[in-house]
Every structure is written in C-alpha cells, then in structure tokens.
Specification:
The chain has 405 residues and is mainly beta. The chain has two domains: 2-57, no CATH class; 64-258 and 276-294 and 304-315 and 332-360 and 377-384, no CATH class. The strands form three sheets. The protein has a 24-stranded mixed beta sheet that branches. Strand 6 (59-71) and strand 7 (74-78) form a beta hairpin.
Length: 405
C-alpha cells in the first residue's frame, strides 16, 4: 500500500515531507527527497540518503508551504499552484489575512520579514502549521498574530532566528499572539512577545511546548504572560517572563461550556498543568499576581523553575486543586524548583478586610513530593513559604521550606 501511494503522488508539486514514526516526525525538504528508492524486496526505503525500515514508518505526509513576507507597508506571498484554489490572501499595507478552505491536507505558512505597522490573521477549518522565520510584527490595529482556527496549530520557531511580536494597546484582541485552537510549539529559534493590551500569548485550548522548543521571552504583558484555556504542557524550551507582566506569569484555566461556569467534560486534562522539562524564569512583581496559576492539578516531573514573588500578596505557584512534584521512580528528570517570596500583605482595596499573604507555593488541595529539589524562601513581611490546604505527603526528594499544613 505504501509503494502504491508513493508511486501515485507527484512529489515535485509539494514543499515538504513529514516522516512519522510514533509521535515523532522528521521534516524533509523535497529537493532532498525527489527520489525514494526501495531495497530488500520493499522492506527498506531510502529517503534523502537515509535508510528506514518500512515497518517503522507510520506515515509519510506531504505538506504544501505558503510563503508570506512582510516588508513595512507591503506584503508579498507565494502560493503553490496545487492549492491556489484553496488559499485566499488579502493585504492592506503591512497586514495580511489568509483564508484557507482546504479541509483535507495540512498546509504550512512560512512568515518572515518585518513591519512596524503590520499583522497576520488566519481563518481555517483544518490543522495548519505556522513557521516563524525571522518575523518582526508590531500591529497598530489588533493582534500581531491572530490564528482563528479551532484545530491543532503548530508554531515552529525556525532554528537560529529571532522573531518579535507586539500588539496594539487600544485594540479589542484577546492577546498579542492568539490561537483559537490547540497550539504546539517547536523549533530552536527565539520568540519575543509584548502584550500591550492584555495577554502576551493566549490559546483557547491547550498549549504544548515540545522538547525542541527554543526560547520564549515575554517582554511585557498587561494581562497574563501565557494563558492556556484548557491545559498547559511544557516538555522543553526556556520561557522568561519579566516583571513588566501585570497579570499572572502562566495560567492554565478550566475550559467551560457556553454558560462560562460549568467545566466542559469533553476537554481532557481540563485546567491542568504539566511541566516535564525545560526552564521557567518568572517574576511575579505586581499586587496579588501568581508566577504560575492553575485551576486544577499541577504535575511537575522535570525541568528547572525559578520564580521571584515580590508583589504584595503574590504567589510563586498557586493551584485550586492538588500538586505533584517529581515521579515515584525518582528518575534523573526530577525537577529543580527555586522560589523566593519577598512581598508583604496584599493591599488591594477588595482585600482590605482580610489581606492575604505573599507565598512561595499555595496548594488548596494535597501536595505530594516524590523527588527533585524544592527550595522556597520567604523573607517578606508576614510572607509564607508553602501552605497546603489538604495533606502534605513527602515520599522522597529534598524540600527546604517553611510549610504550613
């Protein structure tokens, strides 16, 4: 079947090939894959000089690539002829709006160039990929990137590139970088984001950072630095959230039904947060803000987390549910968590009758520690290290903190 499929498709009409093995894919430029050869009675394939066993290949997916380049007040683009009927691009000075009617094949959009008065808006009903290749956009109208697609949207930070986004401070957008669906980030480049109106990055559904993710800098945000509407998962990458973030650093919010109150039962891991690797550097410098805020379970099995909670009433990590640190096996990916709580009592007017404290970690439910190193210091006036509303259970690892249970 694989042989028949490859023989029936014109590779020269495509832009890239994705070779999938399990949950991992390899991207191959078709200039390198113009010839696919078979050997050993069809049990081996040679693609771009690399041999693969036919049994280990789950699928070969051919991807068209649309190129969009910003140059201050102009936008130029290239659309492969094979999908020309499916892609409509309208431009207005430095702004590009893409409408994709293709519901059968994934299309990749390569965004590059620079505009101090530009932005990118996307409409589509099928999963898509957005590759940032040295892109700098400052919108004077709305979001810098607005992806209005409810499916899986891959965001690739091209290796070796720096990409910078800033939105309009008087707009009506949800974030500087917004995705209506699920966003999966990968690629070793750098992304700098300034949320001048509200959140810097927001997804309506889950946000996942893959192991290959490079560096994401939240330069500023009037709202949250990163806001995920279903769950947040970090497997790699480095995120730095500066003190110029006026909301929470990273928030995982429960996705609700239309009544905006009842949790949506169809959303898996709803409101949860998973930190399995990578690095987080967060400053919670403002009144009553959290470095990490989660509406449900937080599970931290790896990575390095450094949080400075210096605002009055601020918290390094806060969850309305339970929190798990490390894994029962105590493997080498165990996390390192370092939090300082230097703020005092919250002085917000609505909390004047019962001002709450600055804390390193606040867990409303149970806190279970299996492995890793957790250090929480509290030097602020009436601050606390760790407060656990339910049961604190230490099964392993190292914890240095003042704990109130």
């Amino acid at each position: 079947m694989l042989t028949a499929l490859l023989c029936s498709i014109s590779l020269s009409a495509q832009s890239q090939m994705h070779l999938w093995k399990g949950n991992e894919s390899t991207r191959i430029n078709l200039s390198d894959a113009s010839v696919i050869t078979y050997s050993n009675n069809g049990t081996e394939l040679t693609i771009a000089g690399t041999k693969y066993s036919a049994e280990e290949i789950d699928s070969l997916v051919l991807i068209h690539q649309v190129s969009i380049t910003f140059n201050e007040d102009t936008v130029t683009y290239q659309i492969p002829a094979a999908i020309a009927d499916d892609i409509t691009i309208t431009t207005d000075k430095g702004y590009a709006t893409v409408t994709n009617t293709n519901i059968w094949n994934e299309i990749e959009f390569k965004l590059s160039g620079e505009s101090s008065n530009g932005g990118f808006t996307y409409y589509g009903a099928f999963k898509a990929t957005f590759r940032l290749n040295g892109l700098t956009l400052t919108s004077q109208r709305s979001a810098a990137i607005d992806i209005l697609c409810g499916k899986r949207c891959a965001l690739i930070l091209e290796d070796g590139t720096t990409n910078t986004l800033a939105d309009y401070s008087a707009g009506e957008q949800k974030a500087c970088l917004y995705c209506k669906g699920h966003m999966e980030v990968e690629g070793g480049g750098t992304l700098n984001v300034s949320g001048n109106l509200s959140h810097a990055i927001k997804t309506k559904e889950y946000l996942q950072l893959k192991k290959s993710t490079g560096t994401i800098n939240i330069v500023k945000a009037s709202g949250d630095g990163v806001h995920a509407g279903q769950y947040y998962q970090q497997n790699g990458g480095t995120i730095t959230i500066t003190s110029d973030t006026h909301g929470d650093g990273i928030q995982a919010e429960v996705a609700t039904l239309d009544d905006d109150v009842t949790p949506n039962p169809d959303k898996e891991y709803n409101g949860q947060m998973f930190i399995n690797g990578g690095t987080l550097n967060i400053e919670a410098a403002h009144e009553d803000r959290k470095g990490i805020k989660c509406d449900s379970l937080i599970t931290i099995t790896g990575g390095t987390i450094k949080i400075a909670a210096s605002g009055n009433g601020s918290r390094g990590i806060q969850t309305s549910s339970n929190m798990i640190i490390g894994t029962s096996g105590g493997d080498t990916t165990s996390p390192t968590i370092t939090i300082s709580a230097t703020g005092g009592l919250c002085t917000a007017e609505e909390d004047s009758d019962d001002p709450h404290r600055c804390m390193g970690i606040k867990v409303d439910g149970n806190l279970t520690v299996y492995s890793g190193t957790t250090v929480v210091t509290n030097t602020g006036s009436k601050s606390r290290g760790i407060k656990v509303g339910g049961t604190y259970s230490k099964k392993g690892g190292n914890v240095t903190a003042n704990i109130k249970n």
